[in-house]
Amino acid sequence: MTDSLVQVTSKQQFDDLLSSSRIVVADFYADWCGPCKQIAPLYASLAEQISRPGLLTFVKIDSDKNQDLAKEYSVSALPTFLLFRNGKVIQKVQGANPTELKAVIEKLASELESLAEGSGSGSGSGSGPAWKGAEIPRGYSDVTSEIEIRGCELLNADDDAGPVRVLFESSKPSALTQGATSTAKDWVQSGADDQLLLFIPFQSTIKLHTLQITSFPPEGNTDVSRPGVIRLFINRTSNMDFGEAEDAEPTQEITLGPEDWNSEGTASIGLRFVKFQKTTTLTIFVQRGDGEADAVRIDRIKLIGEAGTKRDMGKLQKMEEDE
C-alpha cells in the first residue's frame, strides 16, 4: 500500500475520512478477484499522481473484511469504485474499466483544481481538513464545492481587497490566524458604499438549507462593518444591478445583529428550505452593513444543503440509474 492509498479497516475509519476530505474515491475489492488485481496498478498510479491531503483521498476497502460498508453502499460487483463528495456518493464505476475510471477521476481532479485556483500557497485548502466557521446542520453537507467559481461576479468590490474566489476557500481566514505573516488578502470588501452584490452559479441543481457568512472587520476601524441586511435571490441567469436588487421581491431577506455572529466570526443563516429546493444560481445582495460604516467586509461564504446531479455528466454514470 502506497502513502497515497489508505487501507480502510473499519466503518468508523471510513466515516472519519469522509468528513475530513472533500472528495473520497473508494475501491471496493477482494483478494480473490482477478479484475480487481488487473486494475489495481492503475488505481494506485492515479492515487499517487492526483491525491491531495484533505481534498482528494483514495482508499481501498476489502469487501470481505468490511461487509458492513459493502452492504451500506450496495456493492454487488467487484471491483466497484465509488466517488464521494462531501460525504455523499455522487458516481459509481463498476468493473475493471481503465478508460472510464481514469476519465472519471481526472475530471473530478480538474474540477477540484478549478475550485482551489488562486487559493495561494500559504493558505491553500490542501493543507488539511476544511476549516469550519460553524457547525453543519445534521443531515446536510457542505455544497460550496458545487459553485462554478469562474462564473461568479462581485459588484462594488474594493480593488485593494481580494478577488471573489477567496470567499469560497476552505482554509481558515487569515484574520483568525494569530501572528499570521501572509500578505494575501483573503477577504472582499465593498468600495463606494456599504453594499455588495454577489452572483453565484452552480455546477448542478442545489437544495440550499443554510448560508454561513464569516466577517472580520478590522478591530478599531469604524469605517468597515459586517453585513447587516442581506437579500437573497435564486435562479437569475446573470447578476442583477443594484436598482433591481433594491426593488425586486427577494426569495428571502435576513437582518443580522451582533448576537448572530459566533466566536469564529460566522453567522449561520437558516434558509426557508422549501423555497431553495431547485437552486441553479444564488444572488447575495448585502443591502447595508451593520451600523454606520462606509464599507462592508466578508471573509468566507459556505453553503450547506444537498447537491444534485451535474448538468454535464460526460461519461459519468448517474447514480439514479442504479436505484
From TrEMBL:
Q: Which InterPro entries match?
A: Galactose-bd-like_sf (IPR008979), PITH_dom (IPR010400), PITH_dom_sf (IPR037047), Thioredoxin-like_sf (IPR036249), Thioredoxin_CS (IPR017937), Thioredoxin_domain (IPR013766)
Q: Where is the PITH domain?
A: 132-323
Pfam families on file: PITH, Thioredoxin
User: Where are the annotated segments for Disordered?
Assistant: 116-135
Xref: PROSITE patterns: PITH, THIOREDOXIN_1, THIOREDOXIN_2
Specify the Thioredoxin domain's residue ranges: 1-110
Taxonomy, superkingdom = Eukaryota
Sorted alphabetically, which keywords does the UniProt record give? Disulfide bond
GO CC terms for this protein? cytoplasm
Gene3D superfamilies attached to this UniProt entry: Glutaredoxin, PITH domain
Q: Which CDD domains match?
A: TRX_family
Family, according to the entry, reads as follows:
Belongs to the thioredoxin family.
What's the protein here called? Predicted protein
Recorded source organism is Hypocrea jecorina (strain QM6a) (Trichoderma reesei)
